[in-house]
TrEMBL record, chains A, B:
Similarity comment text for this entry: Belongs to the nucleotide-sugar transporter family. CMP-Sialate:CMP antiporter (TC 2.A.7.12) subfamily.
Organism: Rubroshorea leprosula
Transmembrane helix found in the keyword field: yes
One MF annotation (Gene Ontology) recorded for this entry: pyrimidine nucleotide-sugar transmembrane transporter activity
Membrane-related topology note: Multi-pass membrane protein
Alphabetical keyword list: Membrane, Transmembrane, Transmembrane helix
Predominant place of localization: membrane
Pfam family, one: Nuc_sug_transp
Compartment(s) of residence: Membrane
A GO CC annotation given for this chain: Golgi membrane
Tagged with keyword Nucleotide-binding: no
Name the UniProt record assigns to this protein: Uncharacterized protein
SUPFAM superfamilies membership: Multidrug resistance efflux transporter EmrE
Membrane-spanning residues: 40-62, 74-94, 173-191, 203-223, 244-264, 279-298, 333-352
Amino acid sequence: MKKGTIECSVCHSKLVSPTTRSVSRAYDRHKSRVSSKQRALNFLLVVGDCILVGLQPILVYMSKVDGHFMFSPVSVNFLTECAKVVFAVVMLLFQARHQKVGEKPLLSLSTFMQAARNNALLAVPALLYAINNYLKFIMQLYFNPATVKMLSNLKVLVIAVLLKMIMRRRFSVIQWEALALLLIGISVNQLRSLPEGATSLGLPITTIAYIYTLVFVTVPSLASVYNEYALKSQYDTSIYLQNLFLYGYGAIFNFLAILGTAIIKGPSSFDILQGHSKATMLLICNNAAQGILSSFFFKYADTILKKYSSTVATIFTGIASALLFGHTLTMNFILGISIVFISMHQFFSPLSKVKDEQHNGKLEMVDLLDNHR
Amino acid sequence: MKKGTIECSVCHSKLVSPTTRSVSRAYDRHKSRVSSKQRALNFLLVVGDCILVGLQPILVYMSKVDGHFMFSPVSVNFLTECAKVVFAVVMLLFQARHQKVGEKPLLSLSTFMQAARNNALLAVPALLYAINNYLKFIMQLYFNPATVKMLSNLKVLVIAVLLKMIMRRRFSVIQWEALALLLIGISVNQLRSLPEGATSLGLPITTIAYIYTLVFVTVPSLASVYNEYALKSQYDTSIYLQNLFLYGYGAIFNFLAILGTAIIKGPSSFDILQGHSKATMLLICNNAAQGILSSFFFKYADTILKKYSSTVATIFTGIASALLFGHTLTMNFILGISIVFISMHQFFSPLSKVKDEQHNGKLEMVDLLDNHR
């Protein structure tokens, strides 16, 4: 293969070298040929995500003893990473047994070492995710949980900005507005859960609070986008091998954190299985499955679809709990989901996309003209 | 002039006969040549509307004696119609004095009679407006004021449907969504003003309530759209002459209502000036000015612009009162106006309009092909 070109593992077409720009271009081209297969995959991803997110509150409820968690939250993160590593190894063995003749052996040491070198970038999102797990606890000290939830909504916009910067994704004006509407829609839905006094933007407007908010919102967004970038830039490495690296790094970072806690707080906090039950194991499996599904979103779809999927899952959970437990749907909920559905239609509608591609076309024409001068 | 054609009074181009379809087409074509003059007019209309709507709460406050109105609300409607008639007559006299040589005399009996015959349609919106004034009182008996306000928001969508049916206006999907967002944005802003129990769609869900709501929303919307249709379909009649007819009919219908009330309740309710003060006269003048400005919106812009204008006016009033009286802006207000501004941008953005015209182009091509078969 020529230097600076790469073969697409899906359509076997030669692509230009994987610089940031062309990775995104190549993916855009790949995406524009969206087949019914891709659509079916997107659908399955969203349905799977909805089921896992829907199970979450039930498992959380079952994991509590007298309304409290008996285990250390840090240990949950570590055990989740371990569960993901186990899943990745099992899937890798399964995939290796079903390899066709002539394909590069998945389990050879040389393949593994080369993939490890190529996918070293995955250490970045793994570290960012680990940092984020600690930031969550810090934020709870500064803001009440409802405000934290509200601030989390800002991630949608930060993710879009980062996708533009890192993945060179282009969004039309309508798509930017759709993302703003997604943020607004989720916020309208959450408005009633804010404490009474807080409805008038009840945030402590201090510089330190601003900085914490900025860090709290940027770190997980950067983790997701960088994860998408790292997974897609090595498109021909098996996703299970990529997961093995990602979660391996994650387990190491979380283990170091537990080690650090044990050194500071004494060895009692080192007993990571303390307080766990069958229910908490199910919760950990659910967390792990959500994480694995995310990596499929990042590699084969994108971070924005993942965000919409989570929102739709929350909506379905709301409707289901209203139907099951006979709650009435609040006006906030109805207005909120209307905004979310309009936002979703506008973001994925070809109406807003075609504009974008025409725009791209024009830009490329300008590039061509510039080259010929 | 050929039968079935008409000359545009603005650009002097020959247009096809004024059937409903072509009136709207002609106006669309007229509108597509939107000059900076038209934009300046739109801007002046919106600014004027904002000032008048902004003055309203101050005048209402000044008109109250010990927190109550001392006059009959029916008399306000009648006096407002009379004020409008006076204004129309004054403007007509003013316009007649400044007529150029060779123009048809505005004040001749034959011109007046011909215009009256051509503009007989204006009796329809005048009657609908008069009916609406009574419906408002009936609604207050069935729903609380906040719910009435909330239900009023539905008018935006009903107006759009009626514009499509009566004026053959075409909206793109994005524009329909923008109108839905306008409705949602205003509702989010009003959410806090709903009484506690009512946040879970606190409407009495009875058939009669549905019917009242339908009538309450449809009558004023139909009045506005039919007004726009009647004013635009006789585009070359002076707007002051058209106003004279419209408000003349309005005054007659309201006078009949007062007469009816006097017959039922006794002659004391016939004293229409009872309880009025200088402040209430200013309130009536403001109402009259808003009505006159509406007719400019309907003839030279459209009902949708009027709706957006009123919403922007409410937003500015909210911001101004927050600045003047040191209120904090609520989260609802901020989320609500964000939605309204996104909606406004999407509705008026060329992004959503061009699509629509391409679509029109395609439809006309299909029509042509059909004709040649």
